[in-house]
């Protein structure tokens, strides 16, 4: 760990308020195993993402192993440190509370993973297995909040929204086949009306066994946001592939406005937007899909995983990954190193066709194969330089 005084923090609920005042949804990047590391978080933050998640960290190992702490959680003390939520996998209240206490000085909040469907996690009663243990999830949230309070952090939700020591506690969930079980789960985890246990909720509207190729359950999401969205901010995780093709309506989805012209420098957060909109973020859903099947007036934000991995500039309004985003990522990697194979995979994802309707790619399929054949960072940088040099459009790394 390092000196927390160098880390600029803001309460996540304040970010929700800022987005609401700008009449838009909050933009977040998902906790992705291996991929949500610091260099990637810095990149998506430079391109309009408001709040970033770390990959899921196993609380028990994090508490006991210094090497786990050094490898699993990395922050920047030389800018930028994006607003960051640390997600934990845990099934013991004291373990989650202790791990949260360790990261509190360096993060904006902590999140409990109740959504990972992988068999190893469920076998350890982690991730989606916790969807069958609502009282345990409630107890973990309560114990964590009390531990942070004892440590001197502001955990009174909206009361601490402007408190420099304010921290959040949140939960990310999936849904059950029987939506009534999910309603019971959320009711238990939220707790009393006058003092809820969590700051917000992220809902991935698929069951533990639903494949990612199956569309999200919009009917379940509509029911849950209408039931709980006035009590607690709710983020949607799942099928956030492009801002212009979201399959639902909401007052925070602006329509009928001109397409913005966006240019981004490699300096983090230096996004320049030319548009008739007064918001620093481009209006989205400009070309909404015909006949949306759900209305979500109480949805507060979007969380993207696969799509933002392919296109880190998703929330800046780019329909496909632009070359400057690749440059930004590689510049961040120089300052915040990652294993070469991970860098190579990131760049391959960014240079291929994305998850949205725009399937243009920065590299052809043979070029991506050549990229994956590079053996080290120098080879990779030289390869990209050569490709861009041939195309003569001024890209340099």
UniProtKB/TrEMBL annotation:
Residue ranges annotated as coiled coil are: none
SUPFAM superfamilies registered for this protein in UniProt: FMN-linked oxidoreductases (SSF51395)
Q: Where is this region: Disordered?
A: 257-293
The residues covered by the DUS-like FMN-binding domain are: 30-245
Q: Where does the record place Low complexity bias?
A: 257-280
Q: Which residues cross the membrane?
A: none
**Cofactor(s) essential for the protein:** FMN
Query: Which GO molecular function entries does the Swiss-Prot or TrEMBL record give?
Result: flavin adenine dinucleotide binding; tRNA dihydrouridine synthase activity
Query: Catalytic activity, per the record?
Result: a 5,6-dihydrouridine in mRNA + NAD(+) = a uridine in mRNA + NADH + H(+); a 5,6-dihydrouridine in mRNA + NADP(+) = a uridine in mRNA + NADPH + H(+)
Query: Which terms are listed as keywords in the entry?
Result: Flavoprotein, FMN, mRNA processing, Oxidoreductase, tRNA processing
Gene Ontology biological process: mRNA processing
Q: What does this protein do?
A: Catalyzes the synthesis of dihydrouridine, a modified base found in the D-loop of most tRNAs. Specifically modifies U47 in cytoplasmic tRNAs. Catalyzes the synthesis of dihydrouridine in some mRNAs, thereby affecting their translation.
State what protein this is by name: FMN-linked oxidoreductase
Record organism = Parathielavia hyrcaniae
């Amino acid at each position: 760990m390092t000196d927390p005084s160098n880390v600029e923090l803001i309460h996540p609920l304040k970010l929700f308020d800022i987005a609401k005042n700008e009449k838009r949804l909050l933009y977040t990047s998902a906790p992705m195993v291996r991929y949500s590391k610091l260099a990637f978080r810095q990149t998506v933050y430079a391109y309009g993402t408001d709040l970033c998640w770390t990959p899921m960290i196993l609380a028990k190992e994090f508490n006991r192993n210094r090497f786990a702490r050094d490898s699993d959680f990395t922050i920047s003390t030389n800018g930028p440190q994006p607003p960051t939520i640390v997600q934990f996998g845990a099934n013991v209240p004291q373990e989650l509370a202790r791990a949260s206490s360790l990261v509190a000085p360096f993060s904006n909040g902590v999140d409990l993973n109740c959504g990972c469907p992988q068999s190893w996690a469920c076998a350890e009663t982690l991730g989606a297995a916790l969807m069958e243990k609502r009282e345990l999830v409630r107890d973990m949230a309560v114990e964590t909040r009390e531990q942070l309070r004892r440590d001197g952090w502001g955990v009174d939700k909206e009361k601490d929204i402007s408190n420099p020591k304010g921290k959040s506690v949140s939960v990310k969930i999936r849904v059950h086949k029987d939506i009534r079980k999910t309603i019971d789960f959320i009711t238990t985890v939220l707790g009393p009306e006058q003092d809820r246990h969590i700051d917000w909720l992220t809902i991935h509207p698929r069951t533990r066994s639903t494949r990612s190729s199956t569309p999200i359950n919009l009917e379940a999401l509509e029911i849950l946001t209408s039931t709980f969205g006035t009590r607690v901010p709710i983020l949607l995780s799942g099928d956030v592939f492009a801002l212009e093709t979201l399959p639902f309506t909401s007052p925070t989805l602006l329509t009928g406005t001109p397409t913005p012209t966006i240019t981004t420098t490699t300096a983090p957060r230096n996004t320049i937007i030319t548009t008739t909109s007064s918001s620093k973020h481009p209006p989205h859903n400009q070309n909404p899909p015909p006949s949306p099947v759900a209305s979500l007036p109480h949805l507060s934000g979007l969380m993207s995983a696969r799509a933002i991995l392919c296109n880190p500039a998703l929330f800046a309004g780019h329909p496909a990954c632009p070359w400057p985003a690749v440059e930004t990522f590689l510049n961040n990697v120089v300052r915040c190193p990652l294993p070469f194979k991970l860098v190579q995979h990131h760049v391959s994802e960014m240079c291929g066709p994305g998850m949205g309707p725009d399937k243009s790619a920065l590299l052809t399929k043979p070029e991506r194969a050549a990229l994956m054949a590079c053996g080290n960072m120098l080879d990779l940088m030289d390869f990209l330089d050569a490709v861009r040099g041939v195309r003569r459009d001024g890209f340099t790394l």
